[in-house]
Amino acid sequence: MTDRYDVGKILDRLGLDVVLETGDERYLNCPFHTDDDPSFSINIKSGLWICFAGCGKGNIKGLVSKVLGIHYREAEVWLEGYEKVVSVSNLKQKLNRLREHEETSKISVNYWSDSMLAPYYNGVMSKYIFDRGFSKEILKEYGIGYDRRTKDIVIPARDENGKLVGVIRRSTTGGIRYINSLGFQKKSFLFGLDKIIIDTGNKKVFVVEGPLDVIWMAQAGIPAVGLLGSDLTDAQAQLLVKYFFTVVMVLDNDKAGIEGIEMARKKLSGKVIILKGVIPEDKKDVQEMSLEEVVGMKTKWVRGK
Fold first, then answer.
1. The pLDDT of residue 86 is above 90
2. Measured CA distances, 191 to 61, 91, 216 (Å)
3. What's 147's domain CATH number?
4. What is the chain's mean pLDDT, rounded?
5. In terms of domains, do 120 and 26 share one?
């Protein structure tokens, strides 16, 4: 069944060490839970695997998908080049270039389920995110997980109704900072919106760029949503108008942020009250501000030309 694949080499590329060999079976410590005894078995010929502790079972493509935290179709592409070292970042770039229009139309929004996040709630979290001041409580509130293999922070993306529609990965080891799961429709999405509209009396929202910006604002007690970029799309503008009376734009202190605020002014003018949050000149974004500075953030009118 896997004549085209060298299962042993694939395990090596995934960083999985074989503990015991018995005929065609290879036994390993399961990569999906803390495992002192080898409870994970994979057949070297068929590529079929199972965790006897209940983490799951499947074929070699499913294993690659689960270990790397990537979509099944991405795992197929990874397997095309597994004999070479293929990074997840390069894989994402390749797929985004070659399959963006095809794949986003084929992948159902119903693909994602909360059970798929289970491997990332493993009792481990990157020191990186604590060093930046985030609390355990706020990470738990937003369901933040951690991939022990890739060292990525795993951020669930939920629509306005709280439904899981994708996963955002934040690298802690360099390279591309944010990688979105394949098929995730970020242009029609506001990160954190589900948290805000639970309180129906909240008619003012701060708009930032990234998901960690949103979570930092939330830790300061400020209701915020993220564009996942600096450009406000028409679909995002419609969501802001639907739920809020006042929108405070707090985009990054750079050229893209300035242009993004102007774009927001044009799309929201006459529909909501538009303000701009003032980030200190020596700070790039809200994450470089202390929680006290965020709470005391001054705002001013966004005026057109």
1. no
2. 30, 24, 13
3. 3.90.980.10
4. 85
5. no
